[in-house]
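As the next step, I wrote out a protein sequence along with its fold in token form, included below for the reader:
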Amino acid sequence: MPGLEDGRTEAPGDGDAARLVVVGALGDSLPATEGFLVSMRLRCRGFRTVNLGTGVTLPGALAALVRHPRAEALLLAGGPGAPLARELTGLRRWCAAGGVRRPVFVGGSGDGAWRLPGPAAVALRELGVAAVLADLADAAFLLPRRAAPSPAGRAGPGAGTAGGPAAAWAAGDRATGHRG
């Protein structure tokens, strides 16, 4: 497949209307295959991906999100535990300042090795993460579905209707006043 900017690959048949997400692996502790597997599985679910590869920093990932305004979410693979939380410090500040207007998901590639105990997942959500997933490709099911345009050129019923963790993130938590 031809390579595009930021390491993005485009599957045959992808067009401008395809849904888009940004994928990257935080730090250097993960092999390049992590982001590739997530990207490949997301393409099977109808998403185009901007794969940032490994060694991604939070500021670098957020800059890529800004460069791709059509991207619906930022998906970051990382090893569970303290190193991941360290990599994500500052996310809440970026969210509060309005620098992150799309959900950020963290997790693994679905190989079964990524398990995060409840308290660690809660800590990541407190940092501003929308959801912690064992398989980042499952983010495709958490993002709001888009309605097909009607014959009159307007969005059909349910357009803009959001649900799931991404919608909760976008709306903000009314009880605490923060996103995530």
